[in-house]
Amino acid sequence: MFGRGGKGCPVFFASGNAGSVFWNPFKVRYPARLPFCFAVGATRLFDDYRWYESCYGPELDMVAPSFYENEEGITPAVWCIDQMMNQGYNPTFMNNCPHAVVNDVDYNCNFGGTSAACPIVSGAASLLMSRDSTLNFQGYYYLLRYSAVTQFSWGSLPDTPNVEYGYGRVDAFRAILSISRGDLNNDGAVANILDVTFITDD
Predict the structure, then answer these.
(1) Could you give the 3-state DSSP secondary structure of residue 25?
(2) SS3 state at 46
(3) Residue 76 near residue 98, CB atoms below 8 Å
């Protein structure tokens, strides 16, 4: 609350992966449920439904995708840097990565759950902070919440915040649009060809 010269630091935590296991799944886990934490749950990439293990409850702020579906079933979909060489989770070349890609041993393609969803949301917050560092921590929370996707292939959230989805699925593009006012590359000129290039460049 008091970092960044008194503006406060946004704090993000995974809601937990015990949605169907523990005796009380209707509960966001500690410390995500604390008032000044942004609690993040996990959805499935292919249909936006809540991942069945993702903890939920009234403290949940947002969800992000971390699983996809292939011929082997539902599989973690997030890539991450692994510990190097044989010390990590991927000590050999993996053949079950998304789109049949064989990955390097220093990366792991099997990262999923709320622990994988949380960095997606915090990454979106980092984009917002790089665009405008003057906001307090609540400002970033509000930008993420009110730019979130609430219309899914299966329907729309009946209300927000929703117990299972919070304010919806994170959308970094919509969030940055809401703060950029058309100046996506932060050069002072609004909606010019350089902004269009910034959107379309890889």
Answers:
(1) coil
(2) coil
(3) no
Cβ neighbourhood burial of 49 (10 Å; 0-12, 13-18, 19+): middle
For residue 147, with 0-12 CB atoms within 10 Å meaning exposed, 13-18 middle and 19 or more buried, which class applies? buried
pLDDT tens-digit series, residues 108-145: 777 888 999 999 999 999 999 988 888 888 889 999 99
Q: What is the DSSP string of 102-159?
A: PPPTTEEEEE-SHHHHHHHHHHHHHHHHHH-TTS-HHHHHHHHHHTSB-EETTEE-SS
**Within 10 Å of residue 15's Cβ, how many Cβ atoms?**
31
Using an 8 Å Cβ cutoff, are 13 and 62 in contact?
no
CA distance 138 to 10: 7
Separation of alpha carbons 117 and 56, rounded Å: 14
What's the rounded Cα separation, in Å, for the pair 121 and 168? 11
